[in-house]
Design brief:
By secondary structure, this protein is an alpha/beta fold. It has eight helices and seven strands; from the N terminus they run βαβαβαβαβααβααβ. It is an enzyme of class 1 (oxidoreductase).
Length: 249
């Protein structure tokens, strides 16, 4: 790879909040080109973009429904036009669902799978083309500990993240000969809006089960994503790395 790391471009899907925002700001802190994807949170995405810009990064915000191939293709055209073709793709966008499987509608199941599984599939398929041509690239999927261990009352979410783990392992084998690595970061509970559906008591019970005694902070997950993106991490591929405070080993 002839391009210096700091001159590379990272695309973070779902980059307007939580882990995605932390990832975008981590790359911006070293002056990289950062593309922040969002679907509806325009103002929130712009606020993250302002923080990234103030850190010295060149920043773009883009909107797209990641379940729609045509919209992702248009996003790719826009990035190509502005010289922001991703060297690093962070498939972070995702939604959760808490409730009994017996109460889950088919529509809710399909929406969750569209965002959590179809989105990473389409983004990887479209953006990896340029990586393969350059013989260099990084794809990092944000999974979950529940994709490894499963969670009661989160069957659909666990299923989608288990699918991401399998997707990661298989795609890594396909792309390894082309110099493109594919890994997944599977955090335990992280202190983001995704935990908003849990009561204070439920959160306390979870923290009690975690040997570290606390939830992760978004910037801790962002640091792991950043490490997997480095040129010197090129021999790490097909791995599901779980930052979970010792909860699941």
């Amino acid at each position: 790879m002839e391009k210096a790391f700091k001159d590379q471009t990272v695309l973070v899907t779902g980059g307007s909040r939580g882990i995605g925002a932390a990832v975008a700001e981590r790359f911006a802190s070293v002056g990289m080109n950062v593309v922040i994807h969002y679907r509806e949170s325009h103002e929130t995405a712009n606020e993250v973009a302002r923080r990234c810009t103030s850190a010295g990064a060149r920043v773009m915000t883009v909107t797209a429904d990641l379940g729609c191939r045509e919209q992702i293709l248009k996003m790719n055209e826009k990035l190509t036009k502005h010289g922001m073709i991703p060297d690093i793709l962070v498939n972070n966008a995702g939604v959760s669902h808490y409730g009994m499987l017996a109460d889950l509608s088919v529509e809710e199941w399909d929406q969750l799978m569209s965002i959590n599984l179809r989105g990473p599939f389409l983004c990887s398929q479209i953006f990896m083309k340029a990586m393969v041509e350059r013989k260099y690239g990084r794809i990092i999927n944000i999974s979950s500990i529940w994709g490894m261990a499963g969670a009661s009352c989160e069957v659909a979410y666990s299923t989608s993240k288990g699918g991401i783990n399998a997707f990661t392992k298989a795609l890594a084998k396909e792309l390894a000969p082309s110099g493109v690595t594919v890994n997944a970061v599977a955090p335990g509970p992280v202190n983001t809006e995704m935990m908003a559906g849990f009561s204070v008591e439920e959160k306390a019970a979870l923290e009690h089960e975690i040997p570290a005694g606390r939830f992760a902070q978004p910037d801790e997950i962002a640091s792991l994503v950043y490490y997997l993106s480095l040129p010197e991490s090129g021999y790490i591929t097909g791995q599901i790395i779980s930052a979970n405070g010792g909860w699941v080993t």
